[in-house]
Amino acid sequence: MECCRRATPGTPLLFLAFLLLSSRTTRSEEDRDSLWDAWGSWSECSRTCGGGASYSLRRCLSNKSCEGRNIRYRTCSNVDCPPEAGDFRAQQCSAHNDVKHHGQFYEWLPVSNDPDNPCSLKCQAKGTELVVELSPKVLDGTRCNTDTLDMCISGLCQIVGCDHQLGSTAKEDNCGVCNGDGSTCRLVRGQYQSQLSATKRKILQRRGNLWAS
Hints:
three-stranded antiparallel β-sheet, flat
C-alpha cells in the first residue's frame, strides 16, 4: 500500500505567518524599550547602616507615555548599626522635639507596628496618650515593623528577604540561617546565639526559646 507523502496544502504558509508574527512581536518589544533612555547611576544610600534604599532613574524619550517604570530601587548599607545609633524611627520622631505642637514642646517616642499605615511617622508624646502623625512618610529604609526586614520606600512597605534583597521571599530558619533547613543548631533555653540578627533574637526571646549551635 503506497503511503501518501504529499505535504498538506497551506502548511508552509502557516509556518511563515508564525515567523512573521514572532518577528513583529520581537520588534515591538525592542521598539518599546528604545523609547526609554538608559538607566542612570544609583543614588546615595538613604542610610549609612541598618539597611537603606538607593534608586536609579530613566527618562522617557517619546512624546507619548512609555510603558514600564521610570524608577527602580535596591537595598544598600546592609550592615548593623552600632548600638549607640539607636532606632531609626525613634531618631525621626525625636527630630521633632524642638518643634512646637499646638504651642507646646513634647518629647516624641516612636509608635511602631501600625497595621493600617506602617510607613507613616506616628509618634507619641512622652508621658501622655497623645499620638500624632508627624509625617505621612518615614525616611526610606525605615523598617515597616520591628519583627521583619521589610522596609518603607517612598511611603510604601516593600518586602525584603533575609538576603536583604527587595521582593525576596528568603527567610531565616530557626537557627538564624538564611534559607537554611534548621539542621545547624540545637535548642537551648536561657541562652542565645551571638551571630543571630537582632531582629531574629527578639523574635526568639518572645517565644521564650533561644537557639544555639
